Amino acid sequence: MTTSNQQPIGSPFSFTSTAEDVMAGLDLSGRTAVVTGGYSGLGLETARALRGSGARVIVPARRPDTARAALGDGYEVVPMDLADLGSVRAAAARIAGSATSLDLLLAGAGVMAAPERRVGPGWEGQFAANHLGHFALVCELYPLLAAADGGARVVVHSSAGHALTDIRWHDPHFRTGYDKWLAYGQSKTANALFAVHLDALGRRDGVRAFALHPGKIITGLQRELTLREQIDRGWVDEHGAVVGADFKTASQGAATGLWAATSPLLDGRGGLYLEDCEVARVAGPDAPMDDGGVRPYAVDPAAAARLWELSLAATGAAPLIG
């Protein structure tokens, strides 16, 4: 069972560790990484840290010009809209045309608490962008991941927000009434379950997968929320300055994803949910969200397999072939 492996493993890093701490002394020369969302917030910190350690970094971007301006020289920007499967497939084809293998794929792009939007064949927008788009991208790029010398890692940004709800199997697209926070929570549970089953399928080819909660950080992810909503939640003051307890900097927020991508402590492991540069414990059903941990339903192998089949049917993605 995946839950039996959800125990801390003695990481030397912690809540306060930064991207610089995690990457110190690492040489990723000759490695290729794809970072979705790699031009703002945690993604930008992640892309810079990987590039600074010598990796080739490819950044799929919904706004390519904005991405190029934010990143500067030394990065490859590929146009891609996660909510548009045609765009995802075109981006994957372009990446496959310029790379023979892929060592790291960090799925960091996403939206949070967005107003109701319908995309594609009527899909709920957060589920589509946060989960289905990344699912399709990984399936398209899987042969490159399986071709990586020494194995590959896929790192999926989930969130403590997964504690808001399990997958709404009866109505995943909220056709019977929309709630922006439950929609966000469901998409984050989907992110965690995606990593569980991807790892189960991919380990035969040396492809391991992890999901994570990066921590509480004010970035562009909050762009759909008004200032008043953020004030009422105790995150910021009336000037937008962060006042909430236990918030991280962007560099601290990027640290867990970078640790997931590079730590030798995670060799031979996968399908795990991480937080604060460590493997998270399983949380009780009534535990407060801010106490950390992962809900059992978000790492349940049977639920992960069920979501995988739902996602295959929705996206028309091909089964994984190394």
Topology:
Layout: H1 19-23, E1 32-36, H2 41-52, E2 56-61, H3 64-71, E3 76-79, H4 85-96, E4 104-107, E5 118-119, E6 123-124, H5 125-146, E7 152-157, H6 180-202, E8 207-213, H7 227-232, H8 250-262, E9 272-275, E10 278-279, H9 301-315
Parallel strand pairs: 1-2, 1-4, 2-3, 4-7, 7-8, 8-9
Antiparallel strand pairs: 5-6, 9-10
State the low-pLDDT regions, or none: none
User: What is the CATH C-level name?
Assistant: Alpha Beta
Widest beta sheet: strand line-up: 3-2-1-4-7-8-9-10
The radius of gyration over CA amounts to 18 Å
Number of strands: 10
List the total number of helices.
Answer: 9
Strand content: 5-15%
**Kindly state the mean pLDDT as a whole number?**
93
Structural class: alpha/beta
How much helix, percentage-wise, in residues? 25-40%
Report, as a whole number of angstroms, the end-to-end distance: 25 Å
Considering the protein shown, what is the CATH homologous superfamily? NAD(P)-binding Rossmann-like Domain
Tally of structural domains = 1
Describe the structure.
This protein is α/β, with parallel strands linked by helices and 322 residues long. It has one domain: NAD(P)-binding Rossmann-like Domain (Rossmann fold), CATH 3.40.50.720. It is 36% helix and 13% strand. It has nine helices and ten strands. The strands form two sheets. An eight-stranded mixed sheet has the order 3-2-1-4-7-8-9-10, sandwiched between helices. A two-stranded antiparallel sheet has the order 5-6. Helix 2 (41-52) links the parallel strand 1 and strand 2. Helix 5 (125-146) crosses helix 9. The model has no long low-confidence stretch (mean pLDDT 93).
